[in-house]
Amino acid sequence: MSRRDWLWLALVPAIIYCKGLVHASDKRRLPTTAQRQTQTVTTSYDTINGRSCYRSIAGMNQFMKDLAANYPDLVTLETIGESYIKKNGNNNDGRSPGYDIYALNITAANSTRQSSEKGKLLITSGIHAREYTPTELLARFIEMLIDGYNNNNAQITSILQHTEIHAVIHVNPDGRYMAENFSSTYWRKNMNPSGCKNEDFYGVDINRNFDFLWGDESGASSNPCADEYHGTGPNSEKETQALVNYAMRVFPESQRRSDPEKQMDDALGDDIMGMYVDIHSTGEYIYYPWGHRDKTSPDDDAYQAIARKMSHYNGYDLWASGFDFVYPVSGDSSDYMYAVMGVSSMGLELGFNFYDNCDTFEKDILPSNLDVLLYAASIAGRPFSLAKGPDVLDVTVVKIDGELIVTAEISDGVMVNSLNAEADHLTGDQDIVKVVVYLDVHPDDFQEGDLSWEMSPLDGEFDSSEEVVEVSLSMRDLSAGRHVLHVQAIDFDGYLGPVKSVSIEVEKEETNSPSNYPTSAPLITALPTSTSQSPNPTISPTLTTAEPIGILTEAAPPSKPNTTLEPSSDPTTTSSPPNPSQSPSLTTPSPTLHPKTTSFPTTLSTATTTTPFTSIPSNTPTNVVSSSLSTNFPTAGQTLPINVSSQSTTTEVEDIRNENSSSAVVSGLRLMMMTACVLTSWMLYQLS
Questions:
Q1: Which residues, listed in sequence order, are joined to residue 505 by a DSSP beta bridge?
Q2: Neighbours of 105 (CB within 10 A)
């Protein structure tokens, strides 16, 4: 045999090994970047006595005002109502001064999209006053978004350009004042006496007061002194009214139900826009409708997909029919938003104590649930559809001889099937049929003239629910500066998954390159990752450099190895997207429209502008990752704006993983094997 034949024979085991890395079922949850960070708390904002990691009601209100003042192009603050005491006067011995109820809207003002064209996520906390952790988690999430956007994080930037994230941190501020200043009362309800003569037990449970199955005593109480007292009538409380009226302005009127109780068995379907998340404690649960009865909703397949993928990040169990249905709850916000507003509605129960200590909050509750909220934001535009689609777990960028090798790991089942000791879900076993990478344009904004490429699978065929795909792009046409790559996949059933985006920095460097390449070749470098508090794995990628190849790796949720594939695939044909003003609709392509790709790639210089693989709705949000997040998030006591540049420190993959020696060894081995696979694909490319 010739030397060429021997070389091909030697490469066969390497090819098989690389494919095996992809299809190995690895559902372990590695510690996230956020879980490995420590935090230093300052005291510029007022905090709760004895719990310095939690801002007090006064500190939180000042924090929200500072956000709106310091980031006017990103944050707006609105008064949406008044608490019971603020509205009716202080008639209960000065226990609460009365408060306005505020809502924040975090979104990119410079986006080309109008509000009506953006996905909507509404997150609430503080409905039950004695639950300290939910309000602080929501505040930290907002800080993470602002910091990520201001530091050009590709994931967060794309989300905020396509999604409005609305937050009501304190739905029940009167009650929170009581819980903070009279902690022994464990105050839960609002401050409306409403017939209870015992001053330690009066108030209305706002989460039993919403106008859907209100008064159903299987999940609420008519006793004015009971913790679950539902009030004198549906939506009777000022706090409830404030939230309902705000939700009516946030979510599309066209999706509201005219007769919710009669329409309980009618599915909303995959095309709905908008998502609601209510954060509570305790129990470590993820819950979703129905809450008033132990019965699944007509959209249960989608709800399970969302909840299971959330659980992939925080490891929580499901409080739902068919899982652990703890007890019924009637007249609550979750069932109301689904049944009446017609949006996807989820809930979180954090931790195991109402007043969780700071160590537990910072090291356990906060890191994993930042991931959960970011995932919710990434699918808010079409939650029931995007949650059923395949996830882009990881994106790797490598430069070899003037070529930019983009590799992505795709899975339809890893995230949805990682639920503790539960059977796999039906949405997680479809084959991947197509993956597309877009250059400097989000799929939802794709127009004629923009560039995209189909990515090819490692083994030449799309024949599995888990694939590693690759495309080779020429560096010749990449200008110096920052570029963003957006990756999206579709499965055999026609479901698009969330978008993942990564940013790269291209610099010009003088090289002695072959004559067919420019003498001043672009050099790929990773934008630095800075950490000082508690980012999560999908927003804080790590950089590994190996001469002469720069490898940009993303710390994805599952612990699958990075694998580089054979260069392949031509640019994808593209067309103008649907009219953004039209209602979103899912185009379900036939599998025959997605032929298996086996061809080797053409370079960027030969790219044509053609049609994306399906019609992606204009308001679909993104689930994206960047290589450039500086995670100097303000802590509970810090005053905004913080000086990011003066506080940032570059963190490399070895530093992050070194705290767990076994993880460091495993990660090192995987990096070595990934590099071997990169070299393998390069050799195959040369042989071709």
A1: 482, 525
A2: 18
Q: Is 454 strand, coil or helix? A: strand
Q: Please name every residue paired with 122 in a beta bridge, in sequence order, or none if there are none.
A: 166, 276
List the end-to-end C-alpha distance of the chain, in Å, as a whole number: 18
H helices of 163-227, in order, are 173-181
Chain position carrying tokens 């210089």 = 605
Tokens of 430: 């479809």
Candidates 601, 565, 600; CA nearest to 677 is 565
Higher-confidence position of 354 and 580: 354
User: What is the tens place of the pLDDT at every residue in 375-405?
Assistant: 999 999 999 999 999 999 999 999 888 888 9
Q: Percent helix, strand and coil across the chain, each rounded to 5?
A: 30, 20, 50
Burial 479-518 (b: 16+ CB within 10 A, else e): eeeebbbbbbbbbbbbbbbbbbbbbbbbeeeeeeeeeeee
CB 333 within 8 A of CB 210: yes
Task: Scan for tokens 């190996």, then name that residue.
Answer: 546
**Which amino acid belongs to residue 222?**
S
Q: In what order do the strands lie in the sheet with 500-510?
A: 452-454, 432-439, 481-491, 500-510, 520-525
Pick from 490, 632, 629: which is nearest to 153 by CA? 629
pLDDT score of 675: 55
Average pLDDT of 54-78? 96
217: left (phi over 0), alpha (psi -120 to 50) or beta: alpha
Name every residue whose Cβ is closer than 8 Å to that of residue 76 and which is 6 or more positions away in sequence: 68, 104, 105
Q: Are 577 and 113 spatial neighbours (Cβ–Cβ below 8 Å)?
A: no
Tens of pLDDT, residue by residue over 457-495, are 998 999 999 999 999 988 877 888 889 999 999 999 999
| Distance separating alpha carbons of residues 265 and 297, to the nearest angstrom | 7
Structure tokens at 161: 């350009």
CA dist 322 and 69 (Å) reads 47
Average pLDDT score over the chain? 75
What phi and psi, each to the nearest 5 degrees, are found at residue 580? -60, -25
Segment among 273-287, 358-372, 472-486, 640-654 with least mean pLDDT: 640-654
- 75-84, 106-115, 574-583: least confident range: 574-583
Helix/strand/coil for 47 = strand
Q: How confident is the model at residue 65 (pLDDT cuts 50, 70, 90)?
A: very high
DSSP for 357-412, please give it. Answer: -HHHIIIIIHHHHHHHHHHHHHHTTSHHHHTTSPEEEEEEEEEETTEEEEEEEEES
Model pTM score: 0.73
In whole angstroms, what is the distance from residue 274 CA to residue 476 CA? 41
Q: In terms of Cα–Cα distance, which of 301, 302, 627, 613 is closest to 488?
A: 613
CA gap 376, 629 in Å, rounded: 19
List the alpha helices (DSSP H) in 540-688.
644-647, 653-657, 661-687
